[in-house]
Design brief:
One of its GO terms (molecular function) is monooxygenase activity. The chain is an alpha/beta fold. It contains 14 helices and 13 strands. The chain starts with a strand and ends with a helix. Bound molecules: flavin mononucleotide (FMN).
C-alpha cells in the first residue's frame, strides 16, 4: 500500500497562491484554516499531515505571507480536532536542546493518542544562527554530528521510562516503580543529560522519526534513524537512484529496508481536463513577482542578483556542492534541473515557484494517479508527500478525485486500520532499548 502525507503550508505551496481570489492572505495563523485542512486530509484517509518549520523569519514579508505558528503547538490543536491522522512537526536539532524537545514530542504523542512524528532537521539557513547566540551557520558536518547525538539522547530519554513503570496501585499506595526508570546519564560531544524524562513513555514509545536532508550526511542520518524520509526528486531515474541508495544504506546500518519509507514530494495542479490543470499552473506562475524570486534564487546560488539575467541560463561558474554549507542537496537539485533542461532564470523561477524544487505535475485526477502509481511501482517511492499548490482547494481536489482512483486500483487504504501513526506506516511500536538490554542480561 502507498503512504500519503499532506504537507500543509499556509494557503498552498505555490509561492503566489496567496494572491488568488479564493485565498485568505492571513490564513497562516488561523487555526480554523488548519483544522479544515486536517479534516480534509483525514477524510482522504491520509497517513499523516506535516508542518515545516525554521526558527527564523523566512523570506521577505513583502513577497508572500510570512510568520508561522510553532508546529507542535498547532498540532496539539489539530490533535483535538481529528482522530486518526498522523501529525508530524519539524524541529531543529541545531537550535534546540534534547530534553526540551523530547519532552515536547512525548507530550504530543500522549495528547494525540500516538499520532506524533518528528521531522528531524539541521536548519540550513544562514539567518537562524543569529537568533541563537551565533554569528554564522555551524558547518554542515557539525550540524549533522550534533543531529545524530541529539537523536541518540532523545531515544534514551523516551526510553527512560519502562512501559511498566507507572503502576497506579491505589491499594498498595504505590504509584510507580522507581526501579523501572532508566537514568539517561548521557555525556557526549554536544550534550550532557542526566534524565530520566519527566513524561512517561508515550503510546508509540516515541514519535515517528522523519528526516528530510538528502546530502551524504543527511542520508547517513536517515539510514540510521529515519522511519520516513521526505525528499525532493525531479525525475524517475533520480528518484530510483535515491531510493536504492537509501534502502542499501539502511541495510548496511543493520536495519530492515522496509522499515524506512521514502516519500518524494509532488506538487499536483489538478483540473477536470489537462488544459484546466495547466491553466491553473499558468495563472499561478503569472502571479509570481520575478524580482523577489530572483533575489531568493541568488541567495541559494550564492551569486549577486544582478548576475542572474532573467532571460539567460544560469552563469557557468557556480560553486560546487562541497562549498555549500547550507542545504546541499537542494542546491544541487536546482543547478542540475536548470542545466539539464537549459532553463532561463525566468523559467527556473517558474519551476521553483510551484514547489521549491519538488516535482510539479499538472493533469487530471487520472493522470496524477498514474504519475503516483508509476513511481510507486518502479522502485522510486513508498509513497508521496502531497504538496497542493493551493490550499484548501488543491487538497480537496486530491482527496475527492485522486484518492478514490488510488483506492479503486487497490493502492491505498479505504479505512484506517490502526490507531497510531506507526500503524498507518506499517511499522511496529519500538521496544524500549533498556528493557531489551535488561532482558538480554537476564538470559
Ligand atoms: C519535504 C521536505 C521538507 C523539509 N522541511 C524542512 C523544514 O521544515 N525545515 C528545515 O529547516 N528544513 C527542511 N527541509 C530541508 C532538509 O531538512 C534539509 O535541511 C535540506 O534538504 C538540506 O539538507 P542536506 O544539506 O542534507 O541536503 C525539508 C526538506 C524536504 C525535502
Amino acid at each position: 500500500m502507498l503512504h500519503l502525507n499532506a504537507f500543509l503550508m499556509g494557503v498552498g505551496h505555490h509561492e503566489a497562491a496567496w494572491r488568488l481570489p479564493e485565498s485568505d492572505p492571513f490564513a497562516q495563523t488561523d487555526v480554523a484554516h488548519f483544522t479544515r485542512l486536517a479534516r480534509i486530509a483525514e477524510r482522504g484517509k491520509l497517513d499523516s499531515l506535516f508542518l515545516a518549520d525554521s526558527p527564523v523569519l523566512w523570506n521577505s514579508i513583502g513577497r508572500r505571507p510570512g510568520g508561522t505558528l510553532e508546529p507542535t503547538v498547532l498540532l496539539t490543536a489539530l490533535a483535538g480536532a481529528t482522530r486518526h491522522i498522523g501529525l508530524i512537526a519539524t524541529a531543529s536539532t541545531t537550535y534546540n536542546e534534547p530534553f526540551n524537545l523530547a519532552r515536547r514530542f512525548a507530550s504530543l504523542d500522549h495528547v494525540s493518542g500516538g499520532r506524533a512524528g518528528w521531522n528531524i532537521v539541521t536548519t540550513a539557513g544562514e539567518q537562524a544562527a543569529r537568533n541563537f547566540n551565533l554569528d554564522e551557520l555551524p558547518a554542515h558536518r557539525d550540524r549533522y554530528e550534533r543531529a545524530a547525538e541529539f537523536v541518540e539522547v532523545s531515544l534514551k530519554l523516551w526510553d527512560s521510562w519502562d512501559d511498566a513503570a507507572p503502576l497506579g496501585d491505589k491499594d498498595a499506595g504505590r504509584w510507580g516503580d522507581d526501579d523501572l526508570l532508566y537514568p539517561t546519564e548521557h555525556v557526549g560531544r554536544y550534550f550532557r543529560v542526566a534524565g530520566p524524562l519527566n513524561v512517561p513513555r508515550s503510546p508509540q514509545g516515541y514519535p515517528l522519526l522523519v528526516q528530510a536532508g538528502s546530502s551524504e550526511d543527511g542520508k547517513e542520518l536517515a539510514a540510521r534513524y529515519a522511519e520516513a524520509v521526505f525528499t525532493a526528486q525531479q525525475t524517475l531515474a533520480e528518484a530510483q537512484a535515491f531510493y536504492r541508495d537509501l534502502k542499501e544504506r539502511a541495510a548496511r546500518a543493520g536495519r530492515d529496508p522496509d522499515t524506512i519509507k521514502i516519500l518524494p514530494g509532488i506538487v499536483p495542479a489538478i483540473g477536470a481536463t489537462e488544459a484546466e490543470a495547466r491553466a491553473l499552473e499558468d495563472e499561478l506562475d503569472r502571479l509570481i513577482k520575478p524580482e523577489y524570486a530572483r533575489q531568493q534564487l541568488a541567495t541559494t546560488l550564492r551569486v549577486a542578483p544582478e548576475d542572474l539575467d532573467l532571460d539567460k541560463e544560469l552563469p557557468a561558474d557556480l560553486p560546487a556542492e562541497d562549498e555549500i554549507e547550507g542545504a546541499k542537496s537542494r542546491y544541487t537539485l536546482i543547478v542540475t534541473l536548470a542545466r539539464r533542461e537549459r532553463l532561463t532564470v525566468r523559467q527556473l523561477i517558474g519551476r521553483l515557484g510551484g514547489g521549491r524544487g519538488h516535482r510539479t505535475f499538472a493533469g487530471t485526477p487520472e493522470q496524477v494517479a498514474d504519475a503516483i502509481e508509476e513511481w510507486y511501482r518502479s522502485g522510486a517511492a513508498d509513497g508521496f508527500n502531497i504538496m497542493p499548490p493551493v490550499l484548501p482547494s488543491g487538497l480537496e481536489a486530491f482527496v475527492d478525485h485522486v484518492v478514490p482512483i488510488l483506492q479503486r486500483r487497490g493502492l491505498f487504504r479505504t479505512e484506517y486500520t490502526g490507531a497510531t501513526l506507526r500503524d498507518h506506516y506499517g511499522l511496529p511500536r519500538p521496544t524500549n532499548q533498556f528493557t531489551r538490554q535488561l532482558a538480554a542480561t537476564a538470559r
